[in-house]
Amino acid sequence: MVRVVLPSILTAISSRSKNWRPKNDPQAPVHGASAWTERFVTEVADVKLPPFTLHRPSSTSAATELLHELGDDGVIYCGGTELLLVMKLGLSDFGHLVDIKRIPGLDSISVTGDILRIGAAATHRAIEMNQEIGERWPGLVMMTRQVANVRVRSVGTLGGNLAFADPASDPATFLLALDASIEIRGVDGVLRRVSVGDFHVSAYQTVLRSAELIEAILVPAPVDGTMVVHERIRFHERPAVTVTVAGTAKDGRVSDVRVSVGSVGPVPIRVAEAEAGLRDVESGSLELALKGAAEATEAVVEPIGDLNGSVEYKRHLAGILVGRAAGRCLRQILDVSAGT
User: Fold this and answer.
1) All domains of the chain, ordered by start, with CATH?
2) Choosing a second label site near 26 at 20 to 30 A (CA), which of 42, 157, 209, 314?
């Protein structure tokens, strides 16, 4: 777990600007902030990192033992796209970085049966370019292409993204809807598995214990007749709202649907109320069901007002995006199921 001092990184980066409001939200409070990218380029890029010691263990067992010895002064380092930023900002004080990039096999991507296994050190770019993922998990590839930019995706890792637990995360929202799980390696070689839904505790907090690290992410293959749609609304560097809908149709009806919403609150959530209203729906009643799903989403999400908008504005956006993503997903699978 990356331990940082809140308020959020976005607020910390942009706290020196004047009289900025989230786009299209005149009721939002004025923030001392500007676009995230501008503040990063002008105020953070040239800041030097504080001194630290870099360790390069040769195995996950050596890495966990080292973390155990270092205690709170040590942290896992892999892609570093988020960690190095918070260190530059003075939001963390780690004296030791445990580099796991070179551990053999930790960046591997493999498929066994219907389970995709992504090593913690696999980069977003490696996922995006993997042919088998593209064929069997095309939604994962399409979502990954929306993460930051090519430069970041070439360095940043899926394991690091999940461990950092930034609330504004496309992968966490997407993997929640696919019922993915995370393999966690602890000291003495102990391995445990946690669902993505249980992994994130709050903003920048996970269930990772001292001396534990993510070893792999496991993603089940969607069943036949399933379509996965990922949508996001972004005003600045990070998304304001992320939504993933995974739907399955059979005999002209929605037989299963999973709806996840992220980036509005501390952790991504499944919206059970929206899912219940969309199951067993046929094409003729879809529009009414979509409206109900949007309303159900607005009723249950617990947004945090930030640079992207006020609480009520983000609540409204979440409902709109659920309706849009569910509409794209369910219209197509119902048409295919009905043979039209």
Assistant:
1) 9-99 (3.30.43.10), 109-220 (3.30.465.10), 226-338 (3.30.390.50)
2) 42
